[in-house]
């Protein structure tokens, strides 16, 4: 049999969508390694790309911005109409004027505004904010003795935290949470996207008038002088880049911690170690960082034609057989879960603090937490980019809530899984119109009287 790299026909492309890939991505990366450092894949039906699975080659691409651009307006197949405009992967790939899709000086300008603003976060305050949101969410289900930790906890915590970090008043925050959740769940995405844009523009206008101690105001004040559209685009990107991976870091680490390998039903692992292991072996962003070679290039013998998508498999690179186990232990940070090069995640430290605090708070509040279903029956969400559980059902001894649940966002009989749909219209003064029904953010504000 000849080298599979020389048979890159449509039929040979490995699909990175569907249940088979979601059930066992590791087996797919192993098969792709037969092609060499990079292999032909399909990200969605008809969307062709090359996936880099070798650690060394992944670093080479990530660290060579002159040869591998991020601006997806270069994408030839899209420009030539060979990609369906309703393809589910397009929202993660089409050009937007934000850090992720820009190169050179434009990227530097936008990234500086983002990194300087994130750099103003106070670590102690961030920890306290996470604890308060964690307590609030725990109160929604601790008396039930059972919960779906992914949808009742890991999904909502980062959404509510971003409301706090962005300095959202009640009305804007409820709409932001509901519409962002709808986008992630693929529900009425176009309408949700319009709503999201509208409420972020309101937030920007509000912070221009009344700046506060929050990321939105710091971006507004930043010397790079972002205009309203640019501000909105960086806020969308921050939420998009932050919420989904944070949810999955918390979910995947909880699964590891709850995986029974002892009579207690717990793995007995430290939370920090579980987070590290997830970042190495099950990174929340499994495959992303789409690059477009500016000219025809060869990567370890694999041809990469100009202006075709080259995607980095962070998961594949981290589990590259060339990296020994000692590598994981001795060079903790050598994994690529945070990316590398000019687009590496600027929120690595806060993101780890958020996950650590959220998990510790939960385990301390519900010490006898165990999985409610056999581990093998858990399902993973299909899709090429993320590594995400569908649900994480658990049980525990019912525990009285820490605070009154007077301000519950949904009726008591309704499980707290899906944030309520848009519940109110923001007034022109920044979203303070009276609520018809409480959303997650306004009920959180009520409980904590913020
Ligand atoms: C578990 C949580 C997180 C993980 C695993 C993660 C991972 C990553 C990775 C792999 C990249 C590189 C993407 C690429 O090269 O295209 C990235 C970029 C980025 N991340 Fe994170 N991230 C996390 C949380 C966050 C949070 C909480 C924020 C915001 C507060 C954030 C903001 C960003 C931004 C702005 C970029 C783009 C940087 C650029 O293109 O210059 N991330 N992240």
TrEMBL record:
Q: What is the lineage of its organism?
A: Bacteria, Bacillati, Actinomycetota, Actinomycetes, Kitasatosporales
Q: Which organism is it from?
A: Streptantibioticus cattleyicolor (strain ATCC 35852 / DSM 46488 / JCM 4925 / NBRC 14057 / NRRL 8057) (Streptomyces cattleya)
Family recorded in the similarity comment: Belongs to the cytochrome P450 family.
Q: Which InterPro entries match?
A: Cyt_P450_B, Cyt_P450_sf
* Keyword annotations: Plasmid
Q: What is this protein called?
A: Putative cytochrome P450
Regions annotated as coiled coil? none
Q: Which GO terms describe its molecular function?
A: heme binding; iron ion binding; monooxygenase activity; oxidoreductase activity, acting on paired donors, with incorporation or reduction of molecular oxygen
The region called Disordered is annotated at: 406-436
Compositionally biased tracts (Polar residues)? 411-431
Q: Which PANTHER family does the UniProt record give?
A: CYTOCHROME P450 YJIB-RELATED, P450, PUTATIVE (EUROFUNG)-RELATED
Task: Enumerate the Gene3D superfamilies for this protein.
Answer: Cytochrome P450
């Amino acid at each position: 049999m000849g080298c599979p790299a020389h048979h890159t026909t449509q039929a040979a492309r490995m699909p990175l969508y569907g249940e088979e890939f979601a059930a066992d991505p590791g087996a797919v990366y192993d098969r792709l390694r037969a092609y060499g450092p990079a292999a032909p894949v399909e990200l969605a039906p008809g969307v062709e790309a090359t996936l880099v699975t070798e650690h060394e080659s992944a670093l080479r691409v990530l660290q060579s911005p002159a040869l591998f651009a991020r601006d997806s307006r270069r994408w030839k197949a899209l420009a030539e109409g060979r990609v369906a405009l309703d393809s589910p992967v397009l929202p993660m790939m089409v050009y937007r004027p934000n850090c992720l899709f820009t190169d050179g000086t434009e990227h530097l300008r936008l990234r500086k505004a983002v990194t300087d603003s994130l750099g103003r976060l106070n670590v102690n305050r961030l920890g306290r904010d996470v604890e308060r949101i964690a307590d609030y969410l725990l109160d929604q289900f601790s008396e039930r003795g059972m919960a779906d930790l992914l949808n009742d906890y890991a999904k909502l915590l980062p959404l509510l935290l971003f409301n706090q970090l962005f300095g959202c008043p009640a009305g804007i925050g409820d709409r932001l949470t509901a519409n962002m959740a709808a986008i992630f769940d693929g529900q009425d995405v176009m309408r949700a996207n319009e709503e999201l844009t509208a409420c972020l523009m309101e937030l920007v206008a509000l912070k221009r008038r009344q700046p506060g101690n929050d990321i939105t105001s710091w971006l507004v004040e930043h010397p790079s002088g972002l205009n309203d559209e640019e501000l909105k685009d960086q806020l969308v990107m921050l939420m998009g880049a932050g919420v989904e991976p944070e949810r999955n870091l918390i979910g995947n680490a909880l699964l590891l911690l709850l995986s029974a390998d002892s009579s207690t039903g717990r793995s007995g692992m430290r939370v920090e170690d579980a987070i590290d292991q997830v970042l190495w072996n099950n990174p929340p962003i499994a495959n992303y960082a789409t690059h477009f070679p500016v000219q025809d290039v060869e990567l370890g013998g694999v041809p990469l034609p100009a202006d075709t998508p080259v995607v980095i498999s962070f998961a594949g690179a981290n589990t590259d057989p060339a990296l020994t186990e000692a590598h994981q232990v001795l060079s903790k940070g050598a994994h690529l879960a945070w990316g590398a090069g000019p687009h590496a995640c600027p929120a690595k430290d806060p993101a780890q603090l958020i996950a650590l605090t959220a998990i510790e708070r939960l385990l301390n509040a519900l010490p006898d937490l165990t999985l409610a279903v056999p581990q093998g029956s858990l399902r993973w969400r299909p899709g090429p980019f993320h590594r995400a559980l569908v649900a994480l059902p658990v049980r525990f001894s019912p525990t009285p809530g820490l605070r009154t649940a007077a301000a519950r966002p949904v009726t008591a009989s309704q499980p707290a899984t899906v944030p309520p749909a848009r519940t109110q219209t923001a007034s022109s003064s920044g979203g303070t119109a009276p609520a018809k029904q409480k959303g997650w953010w306004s009920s959180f504000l009520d409980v904590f009287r913020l």
